[in-house]
Write a structure and sequence with these properties.
- With about 325 residues, the protein is of the alpha/beta class.
- Helix content is about 45%, strand content about 20%.
- The chain has eleven helices and ten strands.
- Strands 1, 2, 3, 4, 5, 6, 7, 8, 9 and 10 form a ten-stranded mixed sheet that branches.
- Strand 5, helix 6 and strand 6 form a beta-alpha-beta unit.
- Helix 2 packs across helix 9 (about 270-285) and helix 4 (about 105-110) runs parallel beside helix 11.
- The termini are far apart.
- The structure holds aspartic acid.
- Aspartic acid (ASP) binds next to helix 2, helix 6 and strand 7.
- Belongs to the UPF0065 (bug) family.
C-alpha cells in the first residue's frame, strides 16, 4: 500500500515537473523569438514635435538592435493622456510601447478622471534623454529680453497668448511656472503638440511658446522667433550665449524635460529586458547621439536607461510635481 502510494507520488511529481518544463520552455521560446514582428512606439503628441523627434531617432536605432522595425504611431489628445491610456490597455506583449515625458508624473494631478495609474499600470523600459526648454515669442512681439517680457506680460495681462500642447504637456507646465513666477495669468491656446503650436507661433497667431530645444533650436538659429531665455538653472551647451530666465530676474526658474519608455503592465520580464537592451544599444548609436546632441538633448547615464532607473525617477517626479500642481489649482477638464 505504502509502496503503491510512493509510486503514485513519484509519477505525479514527474508530471508536474514535465508540465513546468513545458511552460518554462514555451515562455523562453516566446521571449527568444521576440520580436518576431514590428513594434509600435506610441508618441503622445503630433509628428514633428520634440517627443516625436526623440522617438523617431530612438526607434530607428532600436530597430537595428532588434532586427525588426520600430514604427512610430502618433496618438494625439488630452496632453498625452490619450496615448498613455491606449498603451496601458494594450496587449502586454512588448509590441506596443510608449514614449512619454514629464506628463507621466503630472497627469494624475491635472485630470480628475485618469483611466490609468502611471505608477501601477506600466512596466518600465528605461529613460532616454533630458531636454532643456526655451521661452520664445513671435518675431514681432515687442519685448527683447526676459525682463522686458515680464513687464509686457504684466501690462497686457490676459491679452497675451501662450501656446501649449494641452493640459499635462510640458509646454503648459512651463507656462504655468512662468505665470506663477510673474504673478500674471495669460491666455493659453492648446494644440495637439509642439508641431502645430510652433506653426502658430511662426505664423504670428500666438504670442509665446515655451518648448524643448529639440524643436526650438532650428527656429532660434534661423531668427524666426524671439528668444527670451533658457529654462534650466544654468546656460546650455547648444546656446552658450543665451541667458537663462533665472539669470534675467525670473528667479529660481527651473524646468527640464525627461523622456521614458514604457510597456503595458504584465509584459514578460524577458521581453522588457530585451527592449531595455535595445534602448541602451540604440542610445550608444553615434548617429542618434549626434542627432540628439545637435538638438540640445542630453542622453541620460546608462543606469537611468533601465526599468529601475525610470521607475525611481517617475516616483520622485510624481512626488515633486503633483503637490505643486494641486496647490496651483490648475483647472481640470
Ligand atoms: N513639447 C510638447 C509638450 O509640450 C509635446 C510635443 O512633443 O510635441 O509636451
Amino acid at each position: 500500500m505504502v509502496r503503491k502510494h510512493a509510486v503514485l507520488m513519484a509519477s505525479c511529481v514527474r508530471l508536474a515537473v514535465g508540465a513546468l518544463g513545458v511552460a518554462l520552455g514555451s515562455a523562453a521560446a516566446a521571449s527568444d523569438a521576440f520580436p518576431s514582428k514590428p513594434i509600435v512606439l506610441v508618441v503622445p503628441f503630433a509628428a514633428g514635435g520634440p517627443t516625436d523627434v526623440v522617438a523617431r531617432a530612438l526607434g530607428q536605432a532600436m530597430s537595428k538592435d532588434l532586427g525588426q522595425s520600430v514604427v512610430v504611431e502618433n496618438r494625439l489628445g488630452a496632453g498625452g493622456t490619450v496615448a498613455a491610456a491606449f498603451v496601458a490597455r494594450a496587449q502586454p506583449d512588448g509590441y506596443t510601447i510608449l514614449i512619454h515625458h514629464n506628463g507621466m508624473a503630472t497627469a494624475p494631478a491635472l485630470y480628475k478622471k485618469l483611466s490609468y495609474d502611471p505608477l501601477k499600470d506600466f512596466d518600465y523600459i528605461g529613460q532616454v534623454a533630458d531636454v532643456p526648454m526655451t521661452m520664445l515669442g513671435k518675431k514681432d512681439l515687442p519685448p527683447n529680453n526676459a525682463a522686458e517680457l515680464v513687464k509686457y506680460v504684466k501690462d497686457n495681462k490676459d491679452k497675451v497668448t501662450l501656446a501649449n500642447a494641452g493640459l499635462g504637456a510640458v509646454s503648459q507646465l512651463c507656462g504655468l511656472l512662468f505665470e506663477e513666477a510673474v504673478g500674471v495669468k495669460m491666455t493659453a491656446i492648446p494644440y495637439q503638440g509642439t508641431g502645430p503650436a510652433m506653426t502658430a507661433l511662426l505664423g504670428g497667431q500666438v504670442d509665446l511658446l515655451c518648448d524643448q530645444t529639440t524643436s526650438t533650436l532650428p527656429q532660434i538659429a534661423a531668427h524666426r522667433v524671439k528668444m527670451y531665455g533658457v529654462t534650466t538653472p544654468a546656460r546650455i551647451k547648444a546656446l552658450p550665449n543665451s541667458p537663462t530666465l533665472d539669470e534675467q530676474g525670473v528667479k529660481g526658474f527651473s524646468m527640464k524635460v525627461w523622456h521614458g519608455v514604457y510597456a503595458p503592465k504584465g509584459t514578460p520580464p524577458a521581453v522588457t529586458a530585451r527592449l531595455t537592451k535595445a534602448l541602451q544599444q540604440g542610445l550608444k548609436d553615434p548617429v542618434v547621439a549626434k542627432r540628439l546632441d545637435e538638438l540640445g538633448a542630453e542622453i541620460v547615464p546608462v543606469e537611468k536607461q533601465t526599468p529601475a532607473g525610470l521607475q525611481t525617477w517617475l516616483k520622485a517626479e510624481s512626488g515633486k510635481w503633483q503637490p505643486l500642481l494641486k496647490t496651483m489649482k490648475v483647472e481640470a477638464p
